[in-house]
Amino acid sequence: MAMDLTIHASFLPHDDPDAALAFYRDTLGFEVRGDVGYQGMRWITVGPVGQPGTNIVLHPPAADPGITEDERKTIAEMMAKGTYASIVLATRDVDAAFERVQAGDAEVVQEPTDQPYGVRDCAFRDPAGNMVRIQQLKP
Question: Fewest beta carbons less than 10 Å away: which of 93, 106, 112, 123?
Answer without folding.
Answer: 93
